[in-house]
Amino acid sequence: MTKVKEKVVWITGASSGIGEALVYELAKKGSKLILSARNKERLEEVKGKCTGISQQNIQILPLDLSQPDTLELSTDAALQFFGHIDILINSGGISQRALARETVLDVDRKVMEVNFFGSIALTKYLLPSMLERKSGHFVSISSLVGKFGSPYRTGYAASKHALHGFYDSLRAELWKDDIKVMLVCPGFIHTQISVNALTEDGSALNQMDDAQANGMPAEKCAQIIIKGIEKNKNELLIGGKETLGVYIKRFFPGLFAKIIRKAKVR
């Protein structure tokens, strides 16, 4: 079992949603934290709300996952704070709410750049230091739509499916080096992800989905993720009845195809 107390944890997407909730829960458990997102002021606010931890054990590192040329330097900077990183939680990301036929290709590219390439870039840049120490843990916040696709989320689902291909393969490569890899598949969690989701022209939806509004609290989701890290889980499905979709698709794919096309997903 891996304990998160005193572990150095780098969290992207730490300014809101699941990432922010993870910051608070990890702070309570005594982790040393590096918080990343685009908005430095918001990160400072999150840092100030942390309890049970010295402020010296929380470092701020603004970064933009859509800017690939900056991410190697960001990784180098992250390593300087505490000398190493035990756990990288790739929580930063962006969603989408639009029909494929109406969505301009630049939107699909942006979603893929942030959700997939940004995540694997940090992973690849951090990997050599973990291999040297023969220790480390990569945690990728995917989604249930990383397991199955649904309407209005073609680009988003594609980016999350790609994460599964990469991190499942990475886990199989690194097991001898004692480096862990966990994929997290949340369903409907009460966050702002749908509000900030990109529409067909790249503008924000500015509207919360009903399912999101009634979803699991981000705090509870974060607690489940931390337990999964400590138990060295390979994959977590988090949510309510929507998680059943994974099993229906696996065992009854024809039935699932009929259900998902009628599902209220917006």
Write up what this structure looks like.
With about 270 residues, this protein is of the alpha/beta class. The protein has a single domain (about 10-260), classed as Rossmann fold (3-Layer(aba) Sandwich). About 45% of the residues lie in helices and about 15% in strands. The chain has helices spanning about 15-30, 40-50, 70-80, 105-135, 155-175, 210-215, 220-230, 245-250, 255-260; strands at about 10, 30-35, 60, 85-90, 135-140, 180-185, 190, 215, 235-240. It has a seven-stranded parallel β-sheet with strand order 3-2-1-4-5-6-9, with helices on both faces. Strands 7-8 form a two-stranded parallel sheet. Helix 1 crosses helix 7 and helix 4 runs parallel beside helix 5 (about 155-175). The longest helix has 29 residues, at about 105-135. It is globular and about 50 Å long. The chain starts with 7 loop residues before the first strand and ends with a helix. The mean pLDDT is about 95.
CATH homologous superfamily heading: NAD(P)-binding Rossmann-like Domain
Low confidence ranges = none
Secondary-structure element order, N to C: EHEHEHEHEHEEHEHEHH
Estimate what percentage of residues fall within beta strands.
5-15%
Cross-sheet strand order for the largest sheet: 3-2-1-4-5-6-9
Radius of gyration from the alpha-carbon trace, in angstroms = 18 Å
Shape: globular
Major sheet details = 7 strands, parallel
Number of helices, counting only DSSP H or I runs of 4 residues or more: 9
Q: What gap, in angstroms, lies between the N and C termini?
A: 39 Å
The total tally of domains equals 1
- CATH class call: Alpha Beta
Provide the residue-averaged pLDDT: 95
- CATH topology, by name, is Rossmann fold
